[in-house]
Amino acid sequence: MRIDVISIFPDYLAALDLSLIGKARAAGLLDLAVHDLRDFTTDRHRTVDDTPYGGGAGMVMKPEPWAQALTAVLDVGPDADADDAPLSEDAVPGSGVAADRPVLVIPSPAGEVFRQATAHELAEADHLVFACGRYEGIDERVAEWAADRFAVRPLSIGDYVLNGGEVATLAMIEAIVRLIPGVIGNPGSLTEESHADGLLEYPMYTKPASWRGRDVPDVLLSGDHGRIARWRREEQLARTAARRPDLLPPVC
Ligand code: SAM
Question: How remote is the CA of residue 130 from the centroid of ligand 1, in Å?
Answer without folding.
Answer: 13
